[in-house]
Specification:
single chain, flat, alpha+beta, 3-stranded antiparallel beta sheet
Amino acid sequence: MNIELAKRYDELKTERQPYIQRAETCAQMTIPSLFPPEGSNNENFHIPNQGLGSRAVKNLANKLLLSLLPPNTPFFQLSIDENEVAIGTEGQTNESLIKIEQHVTQSLEIELYRPVLGNAVKQLLVAGNYLIYAGGDTAKGYRLNKYVVQRDGYGQVSEILIKEVIKEQDIPESIREEVLQKKGNNHSAEDTYDQYTYVYRDDKQYIVYQEISEIEIPNTRESYQLNACPFLALRMVPQDDEDYGRSYVEEHIGDLTSLERLSKCITDGSEAAARILYLIAPNSTITPKQLEKAENGAILRGKAEDLSTHQLEKYADFRVAREEINEIKRDLSAAFLMNTSVTRNAERVTAEEIRFLAAELEQTLGGVYTSLAMEFQLPLVRFKLSRLNSEFTDYGDITSLKPKIITGVQSLGRLQDIEKIRALAELLTPFGPDVVSQYMHIDEFIARTAAALYLETEGLIVSPEERQQQLAEQQLAQLGQQVAPDMLKETMNLAKGT
């Protein structure tokens, strides 16, 4: 498939423009440096009149990052696909699957995915879109104004085109002379060149190649399975029939805009109110020069009504604006899961209240977790398995393993199950252990708790068979303790009789 990449990029960027404009607007209300206006050269950023937008984005970004990529903990669980078992996988055990999971997790840390994903989450919250390349020695990210994307009717990526501006020394040696000849004799070392990376779907695979000045760079053409492509075009809030996603900030841009305007009004009004202006009556014996030179505690000849200070008399108006600002802040804090939104303003707040409100707020991000799991976590794990396949030859074809995401929505549901189990146990505690054991199946209680924790119980929890054996041994030991004295007594009586 040979097309003019520069022309194709210009065709697709027209559709991208409205999303860039919205990203710039959202950045101005939160963190302007995340998405500066086009052509600003990272200078002359807009300075917001409030800091809540920035704190809200950073707070929610940190929580999402911990959920998507928990530190030193796999965010997925591998299992064997019984319908597509490759040769050699029959002997795989839980230990080998855990070893593969840990190896993938360690490789993500080594390849610096955490800082890239941290920036990606902020970009998704503000701009709604971000592109991650996972195929290099380290991860790399692209802001929305660096790439274009096209999707099919099912939301699957059909094309990705990345545009990077490079200098002469960055042109690969294999095509540098040809590129410079095409540039002509007027080129200089300071000239820049457009490098395009094209990703397109062809039948059952993705094809990738790069070119500069319509010259393909050798050894850059590669192919990947549809579910294991290293180019991950992420969206925060997917929309039907749209190639790009919407941002989380965009959904609350009304409150942020109102907060920005009211904060500016309060700031400007406070500056005006802080000015000290003296008013002197026209017929006063006090002159402006006397007032200016008078020291603290000086005595001047005049009447009290001859001198006054100017006041805005706007306290009531400022109070209305301040109350509206506080209301907006409460709404935004709740939407962005800030800690202040969890606890109510009261002298005593129960722990159960905090847990309930926190769970209720986190449920609002269920759709976000689902989207990022499908477009980031699952493709990333499958790509990593394809790259590590050659390192785990003893386990067979590990690309046939089925990854299951155990964070996000699954984690929220699991936490709710644990809270319900804990609440039931606390409610039954006053009845005492004898009543609890009489009306509750402890085996089922342990099994459900372990399932909610995704905890492997084999070798950890005593099985029913083992417990029966333990009971039998205890009964035998007790019987032995009872029989032994009787036998000893009988033996002694026999001895006396003899």
